[in-house]
Amino acid sequence: MNLTDWQESGKYFDFEGKPIFYHLSENTDEVVLCLHGFPSASFDYHKIWDGLTAKYAVLAFDLIGYGFSAKPVDFDYTTFRQTDVLQAFVESLEIKEVHILAHDYGNTITQELLARTEENRLNFEIKSICFLNGALFPETHRPILAQKVLISPLGFLFGKLITDAIFKKSLATVFGKDTQPTEAELEDFVTLFKHNGGKKIAHKLIRYMTERAAYRERWVGALKRMKIPFRFINGSEDKVSGKHLVARFREVLPHQKDIIEYENIGHFPHFEVPDDILKKYFDFLNKFYLFH
Protein backbone atom coordinates (compact mmCIF):
# COMPACT_ATOMS: atom_id res chain seq x y z
CA MET A 1 0.00 0.00 0.00
CA ASN A 2 1.43 3.36 -1.00
CA LEU A 3 1.03 6.58 0.98
CA THR A 4 -1.80 7.94 -1.17
CA ASP A 5 -3.80 4.74 -0.75
CA TRP A 6 -3.12 4.80 2.99
CA GLN A 7 -4.43 8.35 3.30
CA GLU A 8 -7.48 7.82 1.12
CA SER A 9 -8.53 4.62 2.92
CA GLY A 10 -8.18 6.09 6.41
CA LYS A 11 -10.82 7.66 8.63
CA TYR A 12 -10.91 10.48 11.19
CA PHE A 13 -11.83 10.62 14.86
CA ASP A 14 -12.82 13.97 16.36
CA PHE A 15 -10.91 14.95 19.49
CA GLU A 16 -12.07 18.30 20.86
CA GLY A 17 -12.72 19.52 17.33
CA LYS A 18 -9.41 18.24 15.98
CA PRO A 19 -9.38 15.41 13.38
CA ILE A 20 -7.24 12.39 14.25
CA PHE A 21 -6.36 10.10 11.32
CA TYR A 22 -6.65 6.35 11.80
CA HIS A 23 -6.99 2.89 10.30
CA LEU A 24 -9.09 0.19 11.96
CA SER A 25 -9.28 -3.14 10.18
CA GLU A 26 -12.18 -4.51 12.23
CA ASN A 27 -14.23 -3.03 15.05
CA THR A 28 -14.00 -5.61 17.84
CA ASP A 29 -13.51 -5.67 21.61
CA GLU A 30 -9.88 -6.79 21.27
CA VAL A 31 -7.29 -5.22 18.95
CA VAL A 32 -3.61 -4.89 18.22
CA LEU A 33 -2.84 -1.22 18.81
CA CYS A 34 0.11 0.10 16.77
CA LEU A 35 1.81 3.22 18.15
CA HIS A 36 4.34 5.15 16.08
CA GLY A 37 7.15 7.52 16.98
CA PHE A 38 8.80 10.83 16.09
CA PRO A 39 8.83 12.29 13.46
CA SER A 40 6.73 9.85 11.47
CA ALA A 41 3.21 8.39 11.55
CA SER A 42 1.13 5.24 11.56
CA PHE A 43 2.20 4.66 7.95
CA ASP A 44 5.40 3.22 9.48
CA TYR A 45 3.39 0.02 9.92
CA HIS A 46 2.19 -0.28 6.33
CA LYS A 47 4.72 -3.00 5.46
CA ILE A 48 3.27 -5.33 8.09
CA TRP A 49 -0.33 -4.08 7.95
CA ASP A 50 -1.71 -6.73 5.60
CA GLY A 51 -0.01 -9.50 7.55
CA LEU A 52 -1.31 -8.21 10.87
CA THR A 53 -4.85 -7.63 9.68
CA ALA A 54 -5.02 -11.09 8.10
CA LYS A 55 -4.92 -12.58 11.61
CA TYR A 56 -6.04 -9.87 14.02
CA ALA A 57 -8.15 -6.75 14.34
CA VAL A 58 -5.66 -3.86 14.17
CA LEU A 59 -5.87 -0.18 15.05
CA ALA A 60 -3.26 2.40 14.08
CA PHE A 61 -3.54 6.17 14.24
CA ASP A 62 -1.45 9.29 13.79
CA LEU A 63 -0.71 11.04 17.06
CA ILE A 64 -1.96 14.61 17.17
CA GLY A 65 0.73 16.75 15.54
CA TYR A 66 1.87 13.90 13.31
CA GLY A 67 1.12 12.51 9.87
CA PHE A 68 -2.37 13.21 8.59
CA SER A 69 -3.80 14.19 11.98
CA ALA A 70 -4.46 17.78 13.05
CA LYS A 71 -1.39 19.86 13.90
CA PRO A 72 -2.70 22.85 15.85
CA VAL A 73 -0.06 25.38 16.87
CA ASP A 74 -1.71 26.03 20.24
CA PHE A 75 -1.99 22.42 21.46
CA ASP A 76 -0.12 21.27 24.57
CA TYR A 77 2.03 18.53 23.01
CA THR A 78 2.90 16.61 26.16
CA THR A 79 2.96 12.86 26.61
CA PHE A 80 0.05 13.25 29.00
CA ARG A 81 -2.11 14.98 26.40
CA GLN A 82 -1.08 12.53 23.69
CA THR A 83 -2.21 9.74 26.01
CA ASP A 84 -5.47 11.59 26.66
CA VAL A 85 -6.15 11.54 22.92
CA LEU A 86 -5.34 7.83 22.69
CA GLN A 87 -7.48 7.00 25.68
CA ALA A 88 -10.48 8.95 24.41
CA PHE A 89 -10.13 7.37 20.98
CA VAL A 90 -9.91 3.76 22.19
CA GLU A 91 -12.79 4.26 24.59
CA SER A 92 -14.94 5.84 21.86
CA LEU A 93 -14.54 2.65 19.83
CA GLU A 94 -15.63 0.63 22.89
CA ILE A 95 -12.45 -1.45 22.71
CA LYS A 96 -11.94 -3.48 25.88
CA GLU A 97 -8.55 -5.15 25.37
CA VAL A 98 -5.42 -4.02 23.53
CA HIS A 99 -2.18 -5.72 22.58
CA ILE A 100 0.28 -2.88 22.10
CA LEU A 101 2.94 -2.88 19.40
CA ALA A 102 4.90 0.33 19.95
CA HIS A 103 7.91 2.07 18.44
CA ASP A 104 10.04 5.05 19.49
CA TYR A 105 7.84 7.72 21.17
CA GLY A 106 5.03 5.18 21.20
CA ASN A 107 6.99 3.35 23.90
CA THR A 108 6.88 6.39 26.17
CA ILE A 109 3.15 6.77 25.63
CA THR A 110 2.76 3.09 26.54
CA GLN A 111 4.70 3.70 29.76
CA GLU A 112 2.20 6.43 30.65
CA LEU A 113 -0.65 4.01 29.88
CA LEU A 114 0.92 1.52 32.30
CA ALA A 115 1.11 4.22 34.98
CA ARG A 116 -2.56 5.05 34.42
CA THR A 117 -3.44 1.36 34.66
CA GLU A 118 -1.92 1.33 38.15
CA GLU A 119 -4.09 4.33 38.99
CA ASN A 120 -7.24 2.63 37.65
CA ARG A 121 -7.68 5.38 35.07
CA LEU A 122 -8.20 3.23 31.95
CA ASN A 123 -11.46 1.76 30.69
CA PHE A 124 -9.60 -0.86 28.67
CA GLU A 125 -7.08 -3.55 29.57
CA ILE A 126 -3.55 -3.88 28.23
CA LYS A 127 -3.12 -7.59 27.50
CA SER A 128 0.42 -7.60 26.09
CA ILE A 129 3.17 -5.23 25.00
CA CYS A 130 5.85 -5.52 22.34
CA PHE A 131 8.36 -2.69 22.11
CA LEU A 132 10.45 -1.90 19.06
CA ASN A 133 13.41 0.52 19.22
CA GLY A 134 12.76 3.55 21.38
CA ALA A 135 14.43 5.32 24.29
CA LEU A 136 13.06 4.01 27.59
CA PHE A 137 15.62 5.60 29.90
CA PRO A 138 16.79 9.21 29.64
CA GLU A 139 20.30 8.22 30.68
CA THR A 140 20.78 6.07 27.56
CA HIS A 141 19.05 8.20 24.95
CA ARG A 142 21.42 9.41 22.24
CA PRO A 143 19.54 11.96 20.13
CA ILE A 144 20.78 12.75 16.65
CA LEU A 145 21.89 16.31 15.83
CA ALA A 146 18.52 17.33 14.39
CA GLN A 147 16.77 16.34 17.64
CA LYS A 148 19.31 18.26 19.71
CA VAL A 149 18.72 21.40 17.68
CA LEU A 150 14.93 21.02 17.80
CA ILE A 151 14.94 20.80 21.60
CA SER A 152 17.19 23.87 21.87
CA PRO A 153 15.98 27.50 22.08
CA LEU A 154 16.50 27.74 18.32
CA GLY A 155 14.32 24.73 17.63
CA PHE A 156 11.39 26.77 16.32
CA LEU A 157 13.63 28.17 13.58
CA PHE A 158 15.17 24.81 12.71
CA GLY A 159 11.76 23.22 12.26
CA LYS A 160 10.66 25.96 9.89
CA LEU A 161 13.88 26.16 7.90
CA ILE A 162 14.99 22.53 7.61
CA THR A 163 15.16 21.47 3.96
CA ASP A 164 13.80 18.22 2.61
CA ALA A 165 17.32 17.07 1.78
CA ILE A 166 18.60 17.63 5.33
CA PHE A 167 15.53 15.93 6.80
CA LYS A 168 16.07 12.85 4.61
CA LYS A 169 19.81 12.69 5.33
CA SER A 170 19.24 12.99 9.06
CA LEU A 171 16.53 10.32 9.14
CA ALA A 172 18.58 7.90 7.07
CA THR A 173 21.33 7.90 9.72
CA VAL A 174 19.19 5.90 12.15
CA PHE A 175 18.56 3.07 9.68
CA GLY A 176 20.91 0.13 9.27
CA LYS A 177 23.60 0.60 6.63
CA ASP A 178 22.28 -2.38 4.65
CA THR A 179 18.59 -1.57 5.12
CA GLN A 180 18.45 2.07 4.05
CA PRO A 181 15.11 3.50 2.92
CA THR A 182 14.67 4.23 -0.76
CA GLU A 183 14.41 7.78 -2.03
CA ALA A 184 10.68 7.27 -2.52
CA GLU A 185 10.31 6.05 1.06
CA LEU A 186 12.23 9.03 2.40
CA GLU A 187 9.95 11.28 0.36
CA ASP A 188 6.97 9.69 2.13
CA PHE A 189 8.51 10.53 5.51
CA VAL A 190 8.95 14.14 4.37
CA THR A 191 5.37 14.36 3.11
CA LEU A 192 3.99 13.14 6.44
CA PHE A 193 6.25 15.49 8.39
CA LYS A 194 5.25 18.56 6.37
CA HIS A 195 1.53 17.81 6.00
CA ASN A 196 -0.81 20.33 7.66
CA GLY A 197 2.06 22.68 8.48
CA GLY A 198 3.99 20.13 10.53
CA LYS A 199 7.30 21.98 10.28
CA LYS A 200 5.90 24.82 12.40
CA ILE A 201 5.29 22.60 15.42
CA ALA A 202 8.22 20.15 15.21
CA HIS A 203 10.00 21.83 18.12
CA LYS A 204 6.91 21.29 20.28
CA LEU A 205 6.66 17.59 19.47
CA ILE A 206 10.22 16.88 20.61
CA ARG A 207 9.52 17.97 24.20
CA TYR A 208 9.03 14.34 25.20
CA MET A 209 12.83 14.12 25.44
CA THR A 210 12.85 16.35 28.51
CA GLU A 211 9.73 14.68 29.90
CA ARG A 212 11.49 11.33 30.02
CA ALA A 213 13.93 12.76 32.55
CA ALA A 214 11.30 14.67 34.54
CA TYR A 215 8.99 11.66 34.85
CA ARG A 216 11.56 8.89 34.89
CA GLU A 217 10.38 7.47 38.21
CA ARG A 218 6.77 7.32 37.04
CA TRP A 219 7.45 5.74 33.65
CA VAL A 220 10.37 3.44 34.43
CA GLY A 221 8.66 2.45 37.66
CA ALA A 222 5.57 1.39 35.71
CA LEU A 223 7.76 -0.78 33.48
CA LYS A 224 9.42 -2.40 36.47
CA ARG A 225 6.09 -3.30 38.05
CA MET A 226 4.48 -4.52 34.84
CA LYS A 227 3.17 -8.11 35.03
CA ILE A 228 1.73 -8.64 31.57
CA PRO A 229 3.48 -10.52 28.70
CA PHE A 230 6.24 -8.41 27.21
CA ARG A 231 8.71 -8.70 24.31
CA PHE A 232 11.43 -6.28 23.27
CA ILE A 233 12.64 -6.29 19.64
CA ASN A 234 15.65 -4.09 19.00
CA GLY A 235 17.77 -3.16 16.00
CA SER A 236 21.29 -3.03 17.42
CA GLU A 237 22.72 -0.73 14.74
CA ASP A 238 20.44 2.11 15.82
CA LYS A 239 22.64 4.92 17.17
CA VAL A 240 19.71 6.44 19.11
CA SER A 241 18.36 3.43 20.98
CA GLY A 242 20.22 0.35 19.82
CA LYS A 243 22.55 -2.09 21.53
CA HIS A 244 23.47 0.33 24.33
CA LEU A 245 19.80 0.67 25.27
CA VAL A 246 19.37 -3.10 25.51
CA ALA A 247 22.39 -3.31 27.83
CA ARG A 248 20.79 -0.75 30.15
CA PHE A 249 17.41 -2.46 29.83
CA ARG A 250 18.91 -5.68 31.17
CA GLU A 251 20.38 -3.79 34.11
CA VAL A 252 17.16 -1.99 35.02
CA LEU A 253 14.73 -4.82 34.28
CA PRO A 254 16.72 -8.06 34.76
CA HIS A 255 13.54 -10.11 35.07
CA GLN A 256 12.49 -9.29 31.51
CA LYS A 257 14.17 -11.99 29.44
CA ASP A 258 12.21 -11.89 26.17
CA ILE A 259 14.58 -9.73 24.11
CA ILE A 260 15.33 -10.18 20.40
CA GLU A 261 18.28 -8.31 18.92
CA TYR A 262 19.05 -7.70 15.25
CA GLU A 263 22.73 -6.94 14.79
CA ASN A 264 22.54 -5.23 11.39
CA ILE A 265 19.22 -3.45 11.73
CA GLY A 266 18.63 0.16 12.74
CA HIS A 267 15.89 2.17 14.42
CA PHE A 268 12.93 0.93 12.32
CA PRO A 269 12.90 -2.90 12.48
CA HIS A 270 9.29 -3.12 11.23
CA PHE A 271 10.27 -1.01 8.24
CA GLU A 272 13.69 -2.57 7.59
CA VAL A 273 12.86 -6.28 8.02
CA PRO A 274 9.04 -6.37 8.08
CA ASP A 275 8.51 -10.06 7.30
CA ASP A 276 10.78 -11.21 10.09
CA ILE A 277 9.29 -8.75 12.60
CA LEU A 278 5.82 -9.97 11.68
CA LYS A 279 6.87 -13.56 12.37
CA LYS A 280 8.48 -12.64 15.70
CA TYR A 281 5.38 -10.73 16.74
CA PHE A 282 3.05 -13.56 15.80
CA ASP A 283 5.22 -16.00 17.74
CA PHE A 284 4.95 -13.73 20.77
CA LEU A 285 1.17 -13.32 20.61
CA ASN A 286 0.55 -16.99 19.95
CA LYS A 287 2.36 -17.95 23.13
CA PHE A 288 -0.24 -16.20 25.25
CA TYR A 289 -3.48 -15.43 23.46
CA LEU A 290 -5.97 -16.58 20.94
CA PHE A 291 -8.07 -13.64 19.85
CA HIS A 292 -11.82 -13.97 20.16
Structure description:
The protein has 292 residues and is an alpha/beta fold. The protein has one domain (3-288): 3-Layer(aba) Sandwich (Rossmann fold). The protein is built from 14 helices and eight strands. An eight-stranded mixed beta sheet has the order 1-2-4-3-5-6-7-8, with helices on both faces. Helix 2 links the parallel strand 3 and strand 4. The model has no long low-confidence stretch (mean pLDDT 93).
Quick summary of this structure?
The chain has a single domain (3-288), classed as Alpha/Beta hydrolase fold, catalytic domain (Rossmann fold), CATH 3.40.50.1820. It contains 14 helices and eight strands.
Strand residue percentage: 15-25%
Structural class: alpha/beta
The helix-strand sequence is HEEEHEHEHEHHHHHHHEHEHH
CATH architecture descriptor name: 3-Layer(aba) Sandwich
By CATH reckoning, the class would read: Alpha Beta
Under CATH, the topology can be stated as Rossmann fold
Largest sheet: 8 strands, mixed
Whole-number tally of structural domains: 1
Q: How would you state the average pLDDT, rounded?
A: 93
Give the proportion of residues in helices: 40-55%
Rounded to the nearest angstrom, the radius of gyration is 18 Å
N→C terminal distance: 27 Å
Question: Tell me, what's the shape?
Answer: globular
- State the CATH superfamily name: Alpha/Beta hydrolase fold, catalytic domain
Read across the widest sheet, the strand sequence of neighbours is 1-2-4-3-5-6-7-8
